[in-house]
């Protein structure tokens, strides 16, 4: 199993921004990232594209992404994802411990189930259970 699919691991970073193309150019030059523009995973055909981040020396393994802010007026921000074994249980536990759900659980085909939660002090984090790929089910 890949480390990023291990419960508790920081597994993905994502920038929500007003201009993904300009952000891709900025961070690509700053960090030497390769940016691959692709259709939004699990999104409708007319959805804005997703910008997949890869390191210059890391081969084809993606390390994060950039996308347009989903809501107008939302400030640009980086978000991180932590892998969990079961998103539903993690969200329920967070709520029981005084946390809030900022984005309800959603399923993205071929990616997984994810949600955004806020801890009792106000910090925001995303949780994800990755979808099993056919080769992983063997």
From TrEMBL:
PANTHER family: GB|AAF24581.1 (PTHR33993:SF14), GLYOXALASE-RELATED (PTHR33993). Residues 9-130 form the VOC domain. Transmembrane segments: none annotated. SUPFAM superfamilies: Glyoxalase/Bleomycin resistance protein/Dihydroxybiphenyl dioxygenase (SSF54593). PROSITE patterns: VOC. This is Glyoxalase. Gene3D superfamilies: 2,3-Dihydroxybiphenyl 1,2-Dioxygenase, domain 1. It holds the Pfam family Glyoxalase. InterPro entries: Anthracycline_SecMetBiosynth, Glyas_Bleomycin-R_OHBP_Dase, Glyas_Fos-R_dOase_dom, VOC_core.
